[in-house]
Design brief:
Structural class: mainly alpha
Number of domains: 1
CATH class: Mainly Alpha
Order of helices and strands: HHHHHHHEEHHHHHHH
Distance between the termini: 22 Å
Low-confidence stretches: none
Number of strands: 2
Strand order of the largest sheet: 1-2
Strand content: under 5%
């Protein structure tokens, strides 16, 4: 019989947050003049805001057992479309941002329809739709960059990314708000519980009356909505439309989402776990960068962490299933 270990449960749930703190302390000791400074912390929070948002967006379909590989392509299209609407079409920036965010949700819903109603595996379907998005990005920019004129972009638009609040970068508060919203939806509302049931056992979900296809479409729409918001922030950060920039964010997003499913609530995708995972990646990348690592260290770190996170996620899921099966086999206590 498998014994439940409080120590093992604690390490599995909170080992990653402890690792984040440990990494920060190690790099602070190794780089006392640059790492544990307010400027460095602000830089980490600002630079990792978009990867964190994308990781949160990827977490939603993962909760249903699906994967949205189009998020990197969608990010590239979203930020280029914002720049096109503001710079080339002369659209007021609030309207341009609204169009892109709503469009992201609609594209996400289309991904869900393709996956669920065309019965195409989510890997293949979203890779295909992502390639189409990449083609649209190239068509929109004609393979070049969208650069604002001498007057630049509206200051109120760039302030979406450049501003600060309470001494911290404003994008960090966007991430915090997204974590809170996603945590409430997944952990406290029936909607989130339905997503988890669909992800763990679609057949059982259908038997008890949960419309599995509809909730999968909802999950992809939520992912697309987050991608649209991320595209707006990327445009405000970059201040140019670069058709190839989105793909750089794909791997970190999935590393954060998958690694996040191994902590806080091991075995299931969750918002707080994703935030912790992104924090580990952010601290690790900032530390090795300041230690003078070569340019190839970042993809090596992300790729290695992805392999580890997938392995740990699978182990946590199998452990959870074994514990549940063991509990089901236990005889009922006789009063």
């Amino acid at each position: 019989m498998t014994r439940w270990s409080p120590r093992g449960h604690f390490i599995g749930s909170y080992g990653l947050p402890a690792l984040t703190v440990l990494l920060f302390l190690v790099f602070s000791v190794a780089l006392p003049d640059t790492f544990p400074t307010r400027d460095n912390v602000s830089s980490i929070l600002s630079n990792q805001s978009i990867p964190a948002l994308l990781a949160l967006g990827a977490t939603i379909p993962i909760a249903t057992g699906k994967f949205d590989l189009s998020i990197g392509y969608g990010l590239g299209l979203a930020h280029v479309l914002v720049m096109y609407l503001i710079v080339d079409a002369g659209t007021p920036w609030p309207l341009a941002c609204l169009v892109v965010v709503v469009g992201g949700a609609l594209v996400g819903a289309l991904n869900g329809v393709v996956v669920e109603f065309a019965r195409i595996d989510s890997f293949i379907a979203t890779l295909g739709t992502g390639s189409i998005m990449y083609a649209l990005t190239g068509w929109l920019t004609d393979g070049g960059r969208i650069v604002p004129g001498p007057q630049g972009l509206p200051a109120s638009f760039t302030a979406l990314y450049d501003s600060s609040l309470l001494g911290l970068p404003l994008p960090a508060f966007y991430v915090l708000a997204a974590v809170v919203v996603l945590w409430v939806v997944l952990e406290r509302l029936p909607f989130g519980r339905y997503l988890y049931v669909v992800g763990s056992n679609p057949r059982a979900a259908g038997i008890i009356g949960i419309p599995t296809r509809r909730y999968s479409v909802y999950a992809f729409a939520g992912s697309g909505l987050v991608v649209g918001v991320s595209g707006v922030l990327l445009a405000a950060q970059q201040q140019i439309g670069n058709p190839s920039v989105g793909l750089d964010y794909l791997l970190p997003a999935f590393v954060g989402a998958l690694l996040g499913s191994t902590t806080i609530r091991p075995g299931r995708a969750n918002a707080l776990g994703t935030l912790v995972a992104v924090s580990v990646l952010a601290v690790g990348l900032a530390g090795i960068g300041q230690l003078g690592a070569q340019f190839w260290a970042t993809p090596l770190f992300n790729g290695g962490t992805l392999l580890v996170s997938v392995g740990l996620a699978g182990y946590a899921a199998r452990r959870r299933l074994r514990a549940r099966a063991t509990a089901d086999r236990q005889p009922a206590a006789v009063p």
